[in-house]
Each structure stands twice: as C-alpha cells, then as structure tokens.
Known about the structure:
- By secondary structure, this protein is α/β, with parallel strands linked by helices.
- The protein contains eight helices and eleven strands.
- 30% of the residues lie in helices and 22% in strands.
- Strand 3 (51-58), helix 2 (64-73) and strand 4 (80-87) form a beta-alpha-beta unit.
- Helix 7 packs parallel to helix 8 (255-268).
Amino acid sequence: MRVWTDGTQVFPTASRPLHEQYRVWLERQTGLAASIPRGRDPEADQYAPLISVVVTSVDRSSRSTIATVESLQRQQYLNWELIVVCSSAVGETDLPFRGDSLGVDRQVVRFVAVGAEHHDHLARGILASSGEFIWCMSNGDRLVPHALSSVVEMLNEKSDADLLYCDEDRGSEDEACTVPFFKPSWSPELLLSMNYLSYTAVFRRTFLHDIVISSQGSGVLYLYDYILVSAEKTKKIVHIPKVLYHSRGDSSGRADGEKAALERSLRRRNVHGLVEEVRQG
Length: 281
C-alpha cells in the first residue's frame, strides 16, 4: 500500500485530498519534462516551426500579463514569437513589460495597436503573426515549460495537423491551478456542446488565416468561431494528452459570445436548432 506523510502522520494515498493528489501528480510530470535541457536548438528536431503566441486585451494595468510573458520565458522550445494586441491608447512603454525584457535575441515581441473603434482584436493579432502555427492565449494564463516543445514533438509525428489541442487545468489568478480538465480525443459532437478546446487550440497559420480572411465582414468573431469553422473544414485535428495550459478559469463575458458562435455554426451547417445555456448547479 502506498502512503504519504505530512511530516507528523502517515496516511494511505487515497486519503489525500484530490486537489493535493493532482498537485503531486503534476509536479512529477513537470519534473520529468524538466529533464529535457532548456534552450535546445530547434534544428535538432526534424521539423521545428516558428510558433506565434497571440495575447489580446492587454492594458497598462494588467499585472496578469507578466505571468503570461514569464511562462513564455521559461519555455524549453525557443523558436517562438509573441504578438501583443493592445489598445492604441496604451504605448509599449506603458505595458507591465518591455519587449526587450525577455533578453533572448532569437525571440521576438511585436505589438499590434488597435483603435477604440475596432473590436476584432483576435483577428488582428492572428493576421499579424508570422509563425507556421498560432497559439491564442487568454491574457493572464500560463503555459507549462514544456508546452511548446510538446506541440513540436507531436507535429513531428503528425506533420499534416491543421489543429492541435491539449489538456489544461484551472484556478484563480492568485491560487494554484488544482482543477484538471483531461480531454477526450477529437470529438466533433462534444465541441457542439461546449468549447472544450478553448485557449488550448493551436492552429496552422495558413489554415487559420484563410478562415479569418474569409470571415471578414461577419462582425466580431470569437475563438470558438474559429474552432468551429476549423471543425467544418478539416479532420486533421490532434489531441496532445498532456496538461500544458494553466487557465485562470475566468470565463466571464464569454457565454453570450460562444452561444452566438454556436448559432452561426448551426446556420452554416443548415441545422435547425436552438442553442440553450445549461448552467451547472
């Protein structure tokens, strides 16, 4: 029988709270991944694409942005760029970090200023990206150190993938992420019930650019829109069964937008249906 101790008492493993069991499990997984040297030359991989990370809705008071940027600094895989989409009223020097603060010449930080009259921040960030793959992150969320290297590892196995996604966990901004979300293999049926990919989705840039450009003039679109359109256009969707994304779990303001995205998807598919939100509890 396996046991654990808090230093004073010995307990059976099963008596440890679930969130504590998950924390220990995650530390072990992260420790195994940390054995891979940071800064490995991308050329050591057969296929080592540039990955663009797009972060939107950044403002001068956002301390959460620092957590996102620092998680990129810790990446084992170095061939990435960061696209920061912010209000044109916010200058680069007003942000809680500077582009040159990353201190690694091979990494690039670019700022996309958006006027108050524009609301398509995500689309503008996507179109400004130059990487072969794009990961759209929510401001304040974090990647584990082996997140990008895990994506590239999968791409070396599934080089034709148009869309990849991973597992994630959730917690508040000031607390550890202790609520894991282990996802199934690709399930188009589940996607029509919930946006289970969300910010863990990684898109092939040429594929996503075509979707964004063809959707111009359709109003403000959400990440869920792009995921749903992707599901309509490709079957090359790959699940990475690893917890690579730490989410703050803040979904406020997304429900109405995602409901509208799903309604648009049903119309495109010529499906007559009613979208209703089912709240937990």
